[in-house]
């Protein structure tokens, strides 16, 4: 699978995975888990947005940054800067790249040098002249092929992201076999987690990762799988190839320092300008008040917001994604334009093969000013189910009303 499909469901939720050619869940309990998942998936969704999101990257423990298709399981959702993404400075993501002191080939060579004996093929990488230097490939030690890779970036060491990226998720929200947090003598925070490539362990592709956040603002995120790809691939071995002590050594290696030092420091999370896409949760909750359906839960981060409605007939998830885009690339070409110039695409159908019995009603819109609004409603409290009712709590017309609300005209400025 091309790396392009790997990096945008910023930071899962954020859907696709790392891309050398960039295009990239609460306060507690399940809400916090969803926020983290949304961020990670956002980070893997599309490159230009990795440039935006790993610029404030996001961390969640499913839909990893390296390898696999990274799809968010919301087919029509656009990639978003994220799983509280910090917005980039006004001068854009290009300012986050380094000088190119470390080349893409050198990134690959460093990764290979830190692996045990074996074959390393299908490699793809980016140097420090691009946002998020990285290296990934398929490693085979004779026991089966496995995708492995690492991403480097800079974050605000005093920001919430550094802590969230190195904090274990709650087990009731994210399936994992083990998770360890460690505070190193130099003040760095390390997370070692053995989890799965989906929100639960129904799928057997294992995702093991080591994430390191240092006091200097360096973030290193390494992932390995027991398959040559994640998600849609079948395992080729019982476990990923590297034991967790080897994964720890991988992110602690001084060999990555030149690439990290070539990247400019990340801006403070508290100093970032806020835009309308950062208030998706509030906007969605406000827009749904008119339907007078009790809200059982709500949350989100950045351009991703969700509420779980409960009318007594079964809980129903409603999601909102907001993104400012430069053009219509990736937007459904067959979406008709309305009198005010807004293009809208309505889809109804199964939520996906990984969510049996779950249906999703989505309205994806693109406004003349470049604001893309996507609203999805499910007949389940989670994207992956289980289904709790026969249809979403909102009708298709109500979903459309939210996506086309005049509120967005004011936000978009047109």
From TrEMBL:
<keyword id="KW-0812">Transmembrane</keyword>
<keyword id="KW-1133">Transmembrane helix</keyword>
<feature type="region of interest" description="Disordered">
    <location>
        <begin position="120"/>
        <end position="140"/>
    </location>
</feature>
<feature type="region of interest" description="Disordered">
    <location>
        <begin position="258"/>
        <end position="277"/>
    </location>
</feature>
<keyword id="KW-0472">Membrane</keyword>
<feature type="region of interest" description="Disordered">
    <location>
        <begin position="72"/>
        <end position="97"/>
    </location>
</feature>
<protein>
    <recommendedName>
        <fullName>Lipoprotein</fullName>
    </recommendedName>
</protein>
<feature type="transmembrane region" description="Helical">
    <location>
        <begin position="42"/>
        <end position="61"/>
    </location>
</feature>
